[in-house]
Write a structure and sequence with these properties.
Blueprint: H1 4-18, E1 23-28, E2 43-49, E3 52-57, E4 61-66, E5 72-76, H2 84-87, E6 90-96, E7 101-105, E8 109-114, H3 119-122, H4 141-149, H5 156-161, H6 171-180, H7 194-210, E9 243-245, E10 256-258
Antiparallel strand pairs: 1-6, 2-3, 3-4, 4-8, 5-7, 6-7, 9-10
Length: 265
């Protein structure tokens, strides 16, 4: 599943390529929005919000998408087409005045709505760790920590993945941050020392967006992660085999990795 930093990097790339572009043709392959026509709209910006992506136009219309595990956005040069096996999953295509095409493929979530109504699709989200709000002195960390504490006995890993509490953390970051803070994923969310963990999360997410060290938590060329994806391999700190539970065996339905020694319960 796309994580907050993945979406932020994508939004930055699309915004750099497409800001100001005029839409000359529109093809929406979604039953609710198939009649929507964005022709003659001009793209004003691409905005990330947690794991959600917002495309805004000068007509105050927003194209909202969520990539989850399958979705992607691609910019095709003039005369270029998607391969047939990819084109069958096309959900939206915006043909630009300069001949390029912006294609949203296999998007599991696609909504087109008035920009004033964006809260309908992202209003449920908690503080976004990558948000830059000049009116919020701590960047939403205190509010996110409060929401995590309110999760009470919910396992820490599940609370971190709940986008209503804090937006932008996916499974990779949740697992790695808990390891870095020596916290069991099964510890109650109310017992988390949340603000330091969230401050580090924000720092690492921003670094991932800004630098070439994309989602690298160890600082090494390999392995790039402390516990994520390393089931039964030796912990990089203590040598204890990394513990693992698959999706179907966790209360929150997501695969979970942890070091039984470094993250003692």
């Amino acid at each position: 599943m796309a994580e907050g930093d993945s979406v932020a990097r994508l939004a930055r790339r699309l915004d750099a390529q497409l800001r100001g572009a005029l839409i000359a043709g529109c093809d929406v392959r979604h039953p609710r929005f198939a009649t929507t026509d964005l022709t003659d709209h001009r793209i004003t910006e691409w905005i990330p919000r947690g794991k959600h992506l917002l495309l805004r136009t000068d007509a105050c219309v927003t194209v909202h998408s969520h990539l989850r595990m399958s979705g992607s956005w691609t910019v095709l040069g003039p005369g270029k087409r998607l391969p047939p096996h990819v084109a069958r999953d096309l959900r939206i295509a915006l043909r630009l005045e300069d001949g390029r095409t912006v294609a949203g493929v296999a998007l599991p979530v696609l909504t087109i709505l008035a920009s004033r109504d964006e809260q309908q699709v992202v209003g449920h989200l908690g503080p976004d760790l990558l948000d830059h709000d000049p009116d919020d002195a701590d960047g939403g960390l205190a509010e996110a920590a409060r929401r995590l504490a309110a999760a009470a006995d919910t396992p820490a890993v599940a609370a971190l993945l709940d986008q209503r509490r804090v937006a932008g953390l996916g499974n990779l970051w949740a697992q790695e941050l808990l390891f870095l803070h020596g916290t069991s994923p099964w510890r109650a969310a109310a017992e988390l020392d949340a603000e330091p963990l969230l401050a580090e999360a924000r720092l690492r997410l921003r670094r991932s967006v800004e630098t070439g060290a994309y989602q690298n938590t160890t600082g090494r060329r390999a392995p790039r992660h402390w516990v994520y994806g390393r089931a039964r391999r030796p912990c990089l700190r203590c040598g204890t085999p990394v513990a693992f539970l698959p999706d179907e065996r966790t209360p929150h339905g997501r695969a979970t990795w942890w070091c039984p020694s470094c993250q003692a319960r």
